[in-house]
Amino acid sequence: MRLLALAAGAATLAFAAALPAHAQDTATKAAIEAEYDNYLAPLFLDFHANPELGFLENRTAAKMATELKAAGLDVTTGVGGTGVVGILKNGKGPTILIRADMDGLPVEEKSGLPYASRAKQVGEDGKEYPTMHACGHDTHITAMVATARRLAATKSQWSGTLMFVVQPAEEGVRGAKRMMADGLYQRFGTPDYALAFHVAAELETGKVSAAEGIQYSSSDTLDVRVPGIGTHGASPHLGKDPVYIASQIVTALQSIDSREISPLKPVVVTVGAFHAGSAYNIISDEANLKLTVRANDEETRAKVIALVERIAVNIGKAHGLPDDKPVTVKHFSGTPTTNNDPALARRLNAVMARNLGGDAVVPFEQQNMGAEDFTYFVAPGTGVPGYYFAVGGTTPERLAAAKAGGEPIAGHHSPLFQVAPRESITLGARAMVAAVMDLAGRK
């Protein structure tokens, strides 16, 4: 299936690349780049210096509401927590959802950039964390402002309703679900299309890429509690060591992708946290693991979650934990795979090539096991076709230097993460405007 999808994508790109150069929207390019230099750059720097954690993006949401109102949109705040919705009506035509996520991460920035974040914030758990836009959401919301301003200024060229969704808490894959639960579509209308993009550090600036099928994997969060029987470190035989038992669980979980699931089906099980004990010479009475599970289809996703529980519980039994002290697994949250609508992706990939230039659109071959909650806006039950694309975030010069043995390109969520803001924001906005103009343009 993947080979067929890639072949179809290549055919689309070949067709689009053959189109004449005059099809590119040079007016939009010039206008958005001028907007960046004269208006958007300080906005981006402000967002980058003031990142906020999921569902705590009060300052960011207020600033986005102000910007969208200034662009002429009818704005509603407090949707699904801190979410913002801006509506731009312009006669009869399709309703198009344009989404940008706005939350940062509890990461201390070490990028060395002159505008690096030094912010801190108290999280939902009451603890203070350094905060950073370590995934590029600051570029997403700045590009949304650019998109809204450009489309508001060119209303003679399109017709319909635009729904700008400023989403909270993408990093915990919670925000989109909560906005939907707060009646997003019931309150503002079910869109005919939903669009979003993500800046990609591994992709060259000036390039965009979108799959004609799966774009991101599923992700599920699980807690594993391993009870023990505490005792002195000198007398381990008098207790049950939860650190040892939990270590066996961590190791055994890595057998899932190598021995339990077909090697043709991608799976990742990551233990991100292991907490136990507080002293050198005490065997504690509990250990706790925090993990994520990722897959590319719903059947595998369910099977892996069940395997985690089977392995963890039975390792506890194998080490003699009593029946009243079993290992327990709690499934906290999850998001399904994010899939582009194939027909819409083929159409808009060609649009991108016509407007941005045939060499700007590259086949989507870099799908990793990252997850996205944009999927809730385009879930099968909604009937909304979605198109999610990647926008290059690293300059060719930096990529070439890294390939030659220089400083490597930091991945998303790294304290060293950085992207080229001007190139990422202007191209993201140009691409989004091109998609809207094709879907709602006046023929």
Layout of helices and strands:
Elements: H1 2-17, H2 26-49, H3 58-70, E1 74-79, E2 83-90, E3 95-101, E4 120-122, E5 128-130, H4 137-153, E6 160-167, H5 175-181, H6 184-188, E7 193-204, E8 208-209, E9 214-216, E10 218-227, E11 231-232, H7 242-253, H8 255-260, E12 267-276, E13 282-283, E14 286-295, H9 298-318, E15 328-335, E16 338-339, H10 342-356, E17 386-394, H11 396-403, H12 421-440
Parallel strand pairs: 3-6, 3-7, 7-17
Antiparallel strand pairs: 1-2, 2-6, 4-5, 8-17, 9-16, 10-14, 10-15, 11-13, 12-14
Helix pairs in contact: 1-10, 2-4, 2-12, 4-12, 7-9, 10-12
- Give the oligomer, counting copies of the same chain as homo and different chains as hetero: single chain
Distance between the termini: 35 Å
Q: Can you count the helices? A: 12
Poorly predicted ranges (pLDDT <50, ≥5 residues)?
1-23
Q: How many domain modules? A: 2
Q: What's the arrangement of strands in the largest beta sheet?
A: 1-2-6-3-7-17-8
Q: Identify the overall geometry.
A: elongated
- Care to count the β-strands? 17
CATH topology of the largest domain: Aminopeptidase
Structural class: alpha+beta
The CATH superfamily title of the largest domain:
Zn peptidases
**Percent helix:** 25-40%
Biggest beta sheet attributes: 7 strands, mixed
Instruction: Tell me the strand percentage band.
Output: 15-25%
Q: In angstroms, what is the radius of gyration?
A: 24 Å
CATH class of the largest domain: Alpha Beta
Q: For the residues shown, what is the average pLDDT? A: 93
Q: Could you give the order of the helices and strands?
A: HHHEEEEEHEHHEEEEEHHEEEHEEHEHH
